[in-house]
Amino acid sequence: MKWPRTLILLIVSLAVIIARGENVKISGKVIDGEDKPVEFATVRIAGTAIGTNTDLQGLYSLTVAPKDTIDVIFSCIGFKEVKRQLIEPKGDVTLNVRLYTDEQVLDELEVVGFRDNVNGMQNIGTESLKTSPDASGGSVEAMLQTMAGVNSSNEMSSQYSVRGGSFDENSVYINGVEVYRPQLVRSGQQEGLSIINPDMVGNIKFSTGGFPARYSDKMSSALDITYREPEAIEFGASVSLMGGSLSFGQNSGKFSQLHGVRLKKNNSLLSSLETRGEYDPLYFDYQTDINFKPNDKLTFNLLGNISLNHYNFKPADRETTFGTTSDAKSFKVYFDGDEKDKFETYFGTFSALYKINRANTIGASLSAFLTNELVSYDISGEYWLDQAGTGGEESVGGELGVGKYMEHSRNRLRASVIQFALKGTSAVRANNFSYGISFQHEAFHDRTKEWEWRDSAGYSLPTAPEGVHLIYNMSSKQDIANNRLAFYLEDAVYLSNNFAYMTLNAGVRFSYWDFNKEFLVSPRVNFSVSPMNFTRWTYRIATGIYYQSPFYKEYRMALEDDLGNGYIVLNDKIKSPRSIQVVLGADYTFRMMNRPFKLTGEAYYKNLARLISYEYDNLKINYSGINDSKGYIMGLDMKLFGQFVEGTDSWITFSLMKTNQNINGKNVPLPSDQRYSVGLYFTDYFPKFPKLKFALRGIFSDGLTMTAPHVSRDISYFRAPAYKRVDIGLSYQLVGYTKDGVRPYNFWRHFKNITVAFDVFNLFDISNVSSYYWVTDVNDIQYAVPNYLTRRQFNLRLTVEL
User: What is the mean pLDDT of the chain?
Assistant: First the structure.
């Protein structure tokens, strides 16, 4: 047997470690070629997870277990890496190091990326994902919603709008491949988990406008996620009142793998909604990211995702009070029936990247996205609408409306998107070329059947003497396949002289869609400059012609037959909406309270043409299916980022926006019009208890503009109340790094982190509106009854990392 021998070796190893005595403390100072301290330089022990950063004076200190040889690595962006080897160190060791500027690195992309916004994409740190309190469980999208120009008015959803665009105008990439969301989602309750697993995220790039040509034909934003490679064997687990997650990673140098499993069952959160009943949601997600590097030149990657979101709901009743203090109303409903929805998506991609030499790379990828969606419900209800305080079933004088309704849906959608792509990069002196070509095949199987019947005060709506009619019905039976071809070429140039440091990204994107025989040309340019005499300032300008290439539900057009029955046809005459954009921006970096800060401002203007008008119904977007409007969007975004508390990053954002849509000759705001928005993410810790941390996430934004069902906004629209929400979280690290950046050398050294956290969602218990239920009486008077979002909720979290 091998176990006794292994046990003996383990005991001998432990004995040797104990015999070596106390840990070695390594400290010193890091300076540059001019004897100035280097701030925030990384000091780490090779082959371990032990490391720290220098402070404002360039000082560092860390503790490590004694070894025969210890390799200490010093690195910092813009400097050459330095490695020092200590032979049999003991006790306290002083190690001072001088770093020299790496002139060659200054010409590389990584250094320019250190500037927060270059080539239209800004780098966003991932540290806040684990501490941010949000109802979706630390999602990337929840953090984005506090950024300038990004808006969301539903805490249960990962959907967001950017600078006046719709939810569908945002492209999302994982490991360089575009991913898609389910198409039939109507509410945050159905949506479940975001496709992005926060436990696997390594790098986040995001653009609210002016993004380069490599990103697809979407008009508003680009989110580029890169999953990380684990450094060694790792394991993580998190459990809360709303669900849990597991992650496992391993890296042997040539082979690395990262797996993530998430399970969410947020009954407690849904129970705070005004509609009471039996909520039985179950959201499951599995993802894997595998890399194989047979040599230094070749890398293979496999990315896979299985997402199963099931939402079952049996409503019982709801009671909503709304209106003003002088004109308050009460809406009471008793329900019968249930809803059973499922959203199953499968996504996979296999890619290969070959590094020809230091200047050239080429890659190929094959990806597939499959979705199987079903929205099924049969729900009936009896309702009473009364003046508050005088209503009820026995009320006479206070009664405004009484009736019944029935809603039915059997909506099924199966869709597939298969893409093959070739990409490459070439560096020629100061030019960095990127290019690629892709072929995409799409197929859709759509079966829709939904209707609604209403009875108000004994009269069927609409009232018809010859029989009972439905107030709304729609059917669709479509099977379609189409193809898209795209090619892009862009050049990133990095220049510097005695006057300024400059970057220029210019590119063009060509695309063809055989469904409507449309050929698009999308030129895009982004330029930034940092004057040498004013290095704290960076100025940039971006412009381009962006298109919104319609996806399936955008070219579905609703028509009616002679009997008033609605049906769907696919509009092959549809054209891609166009947006001509101009963005002017500036960054100013400074120190306040001896801490780093950055103030960013951007002004933008979008000229919109060939728009496909739409209306929001909660998260569902109802498109007209035709190019029937034009308009513009203009606004200003401001962001202050920095260490309001030493050692922690926080930010506050402020946005102003104006939208205009000309539809049927009348100027009205877009459905996504939010005139103002304030976002806040703040972190703090307690000096006497540095492992006790506090995080606050707040959003205050203007309400969306809405219309009554089946009414165009050129006839009438109104604005919903402002969205106001504050979430807070308190976390305490039970086991983890010490203040010197190392873990204790005992049993707990096997644990990278153990943290317990307590969250309060919707701290001020504000009733935010997601949508409206419309009640129509026999006199054809409509009443908008608000559907409120979640109220105050509490959550406990436990996170363990090995």
Answer: 84
